[in-house]
Write a structure and sequence with these properties.
Distance between the termini: 47 Å
Shape: globular
Order of helices and strands: HHHHHHHHHHHEEEH
Strand content: 5-15%
Structural class: mainly alpha
Number of helices: 12
């Protein structure tokens, strides 16, 4: 497989990698196995590698480690890793899914990063999986590349849930004419104001407030 050559992987079981790149639509058409089971395994491998890396290299609290991990294993992050190494170009899709642009569908492309990691783990072992992780994920963390993560609300929610704290978004102002309104949202954790965001829609303002809260939490 050209992809494996490019990544410097000498497979013992090529079938694992073929399965890791087989979407359910393709598997149903061909009567083969899809990537879903490997994705389940790869998700756990990724979480272990990420947790191990953060524990051994970052002298930060449990809550902080949880927040950083959430940043770099969210769907948007996985999509970035996948497309960066071109995994989606080797996706095997059913006819309908292929015609509707499945090769660029965020949920699918993010899934195959985990399934591919699961295949590496089964075929090559944890150290090769760690090397793959080190080469394709760690640079994003070391370079503090978090701007491509657009779902700050989900990351903040996961961060707060770890300590079972309450999270509340509150509209504090609404200004401008009807065709060009500007909303300002405040987000509080356990009643304490953590972030403020302003945008031309309430949803976007909430995202900005969550982003602000995460930045402040990181400094704290």
């Amino acid at each position: 497989m050209e992809l494996l050559n490019k990544l410097g992987i000498k497979p013992k079981n090529i079938h694992l990698y073929e399965t890791a790149l087989s979407h359910t639509s393709y598997a149903n058409e061909k009567g083969t196995e899809s990537y879903e089971r490997l994705e389940f395994l790869g998700d756990a491998v990724l979480e272990l590698l990420m947790s191990d890396y953060l524990y051994n290299t970052k002298h930060i609290s449990e809550g902080e480690m949880t927040k950083v991990r959430a940043h770099y294993v969210c769907e948007t992050a996985l999509y970035e890793y996948s497309t960066k190494i071109g995994l989606n170009e080797y996706l095997k899709l059913g006819k309908g899914e292929s015609e509707s642009g499945g090769k660029y569908r965020k949920a699918i492309v993010s899934d195959i990063f985990e399934s591919f990691l699961g295949a590496i783990y089964l075929d090559q072992g944890i150290e090769t999986a760690r090397s793959f992780f080190k080469e394709n994920v760690i640079p994003y963390i070391e370079n503090h590349e978090i701007d491509f993560f657009d779902d700050y609300k989900s990351v903040l929610q996961e961060f707060v849930q770890t300590d079972k704290r309450s999270l509340e978004y509150k509209l504090i102002s609404e200004t401008g004419p009807a065709h060009n309104k500007e909303f300002t949202i405040e987000v509080s954790i356990d009643g304490i104001k953590y972030g403020v965001g302003t945008a031309h829609s309430k949803k976007a303002a909430e995202q900005e407030a969550a982003k602000d809260a995460l930045a402040k939490a990181q400094k704290g």
